[in-house]
Amino acid sequence: MFSLLADKLDNTFRRLRGLGKISEKNIADALRDIRLALLEADVEFGVAREFIGRVKERAMGQEVLKSIKPGEQIVKIFRDEIAALLGGDAVGLDLTDPARIMVVGLNGAGKTTTSAKLALRLKNEGRRPLLVACDLVRPAAVDQLATLAEQIGVPVYKPAPGSRDVVAVAREALEWARTQNGTVMIFDTAGRQEVDEALIDELRQLHAFLSPRETLLVADAATGQQAVNVAQTFDRAVNVTGIVLTKLDGDARGGAALSMRSVTGKPIKFSGEGEKLDQFGPFVPGRMADRILGMGDIVGLVEHAAARIDEEQAAKSMDRMMSGQFDFNDFLDQMKMMQNLGPLEGLLGLLPGFGKIKKQLPEGALDPKRMKHMEAIVLSMTAKERSNPNLLNPSRRRRIAAGCGRPLMEVNKLIKNFSEMRKMMSGKGKMGAMMKQMASMK
Ligand code: GDP
């Protein structure tokens, strides 16, 4: 998401930064480029125009024209205005008792997945969520929610097969909840291909019955402007309190994210960035703005890694690396750690300037399959070979290649890279010396 926009803006800002002095014409040219980039990213026309108006007003001010680094100033203005457009400060959930959250949206937007992701998140925060399947239109949706609930260990209420009345189901669920010791209930509701009267009617009734603290509209960011229109329609029916933008991991142009807040007036509270249940988090406008500017999201990256890496193990393998004992068993452990982090591409996307680095990488370098192949090669080694890579002579290498079904060349390459890494990291290598020095400074 946003990579196209980030690329275009990067060129514009690079030009601005290169200018020692800035004239009104320079600013006007840059603003025209930015406006076009926003429109190409599918930002709503009026939103783009107002946005440019705000940036222009500030950019033409004396603070910029007289500044020593005018380009930087304009970039900063732009970044702040993007953050403001996305909603300013992050907005949390109202979870005062009775905490009920109604999750609404069109079919396929990601309601059921989001309900489970949210439940997992609340559970990890120490709350006791309960899930309720209120989609009586699509029978598979009930099973889908039940399966996800089981995966994350959250109790789920499943309506009896053939139930038709969603308010009756919700009433039963509230009864059931009394026996469950939960602190927050999440209701996954029915969708449609498009908004229709029957759906709106049903949601209105359910909403009136539940009086939920939060009504979260789940919108697929990949549907662009349509997502914004849908959000408005739902809001008129059931008074949406927040938006969840899903599929921000995709290639969509990002216009939905940028227009959503200002067109609907509703905060984007969460975003989904993948199919996995932990690929979800609060929507933080400032961080998103940094990403759009290609500045990456280092805070997000660190938080993401910290939640998934076993620090003790990481420290242990670091020690082994520095002492030159690092073998293929450690390599396997490290690969597992990497896999826990999720798809490499999504992760690296949080790094500043990654859009550009990615273009320079050989094709398929980030393909998760490569990781699997490397793992297969190491798993085809015997325990002895893994702990003593020096044993890996040509005939053993051929056996390994045949065992895991990878070309011999790939096996050789992996072993070569591994040896180089070991040498570099060990006390004798440059990196090892550097790390030792750093460790002694602490
Ligand atoms: P519902 O019909 O609104 O309940 O939608 P689902 O929860 O069944 O989701 C529809 C599809 O979108 C499923 O294949 C999900 O795995 C996928 N999905 C949901 N959220 C995300 C996301 O943030 N990123 C990606 N890539 N896929 C998602």
| Fourth-level CATH superfamily of the largest domain | P-loop containing nucleotide triphosphate hydrolases
Q: How does the overall form come out from the CA principal axes?
A: flat
| SSE topology string | HHHHHEHEHEHEHEHEHEEHHHHHHHHHHH
Instruction: Work out the count of structural domains.
Output: 3
State the CATH topology of the largest domain.
Rossmann fold
Overall mean pLDDT:
85
Q: Give the helix proportion (percent range).
A: 55-70%
Structural class: alpha/beta
Q: How many DSSP-defined strands? A: 8
The whole-angstrom Rg is 26 Å
Read across the widest sheet, the strand sequence of neighbours is 3-2-4-1-5-6-7-8
**Share in β-strands:** 5-15%
Task: State the CATH architecture of the largest domain.
Answer: 3-Layer(aba) Sandwich
List all distinct small molecules, including ions and cofactors, that are bound in this structure: guanosine-5'-diphosphate
C-alpha end-to-end distance:
40 Å
**Main sheet attributes: strand count, strand direction, barrel closure:** 8 strands, mixed
- Specify the number of helices: 22
What can you see in these coordinates?
Its main location: cytoplasm. Belongs to the GTP-binding SRP family. SRP54 subfamily. This is Signal recognition particle protein. GTP binds at residues 105-112, 188-192, 246-249. It catalyses: GTP + H2O = GDP + phosphate + H(+). The protein has 442 residues and is α/β, with parallel strands linked by helices. It has three domains: 3-85, Four Helix Bundle (Hemerythrin (Met), subunit A), CATH 1.20.120; 99-292, Rossmann fold; 305-441, 434 Repressor (Amino-terminal Domain), CATH 1.10.260. The protein is 59% helix and 9% strand. The protein contains 22 helices and eight strands. It has helices at residues 3-18, 24-40, 45-59, 62-65, 70-85, 111-124, 139-152, 166-178, 197-210, 225-238, 255-264, 285-292, 298-308, 311-322, 328-340, 344-348, 354-360, 368-379, 383-387, 394-404, 408-425, 430-441, and strands at 99-104, 129-134, 156-157, 184-189, 214-220, 242-246, 268-272, 280-282. An eight-stranded mixed beta sheet has the order 3-2-4-1-5-6-7-8, sandwiched between helices. The longest helix is centred in the last third of the chain and has 18 residues, at 408-425. The two termini are 40 Å apart. Residues 105, 107-113, 191, 246-247, 249-250, 272-275 line the site of guanosine-5'-diphosphate (GDP).
